[in-house]
Amino acid sequence: MDTKLKQMRECVLEELNYIPKGPIPQGELRAMYWMQRMHSLGRKTTTTQTAREVLDKCITYLKKDHPNFEFKYDEEFFSRIR
User: Fold this and answer.
1) What span, in angstroms and rounded, lies between the C-alpha atoms of 16 and 13?
2) pTM of the full predicted structure?
3) In sequence order, what are the residues at sequence separation of 6 or more whose Cβ sits closer than 8 angstroms to the Cβ of residue 63?
4) pLDDT in the model for residue 23
5) Rounded CA separation 62/65 (Å)
6) Of 23, 47, 51, 52, which one has the greatest count of Cβ atoms within 10 A?
7) pLDDT tens sequence across 17-52
8) Is the pLDDT of residue 53 over 70?
9) Dist. CA 67–CA 56, nearest whole Å
10) Where are the domains of the chain?
């Protein structure tokens, strides 16, 4: 595994500490966040997105299927990281 990929994984795993585990919609958020965030940090990405932008995008998408679910995440953490 190359160093860049390892660094990306470590970064996203750290960020996932601020999105708690929970029932199915919360688990979907964590899975989607992992995929989208890894893509946003990858070499082939065409647009730069912050962690918060990725999180908001995931929540907006998941709200279509789970409109009444309150997704949990550390607001303070996601407001200050890039």
Assistant:
1) 5
2) 0.93
3) 69
4) 95
5) 6
6) 51
7) 999 999 999 999 999 999 999 999 998 877 789 999
8) yes
9) 14
10) 3-80
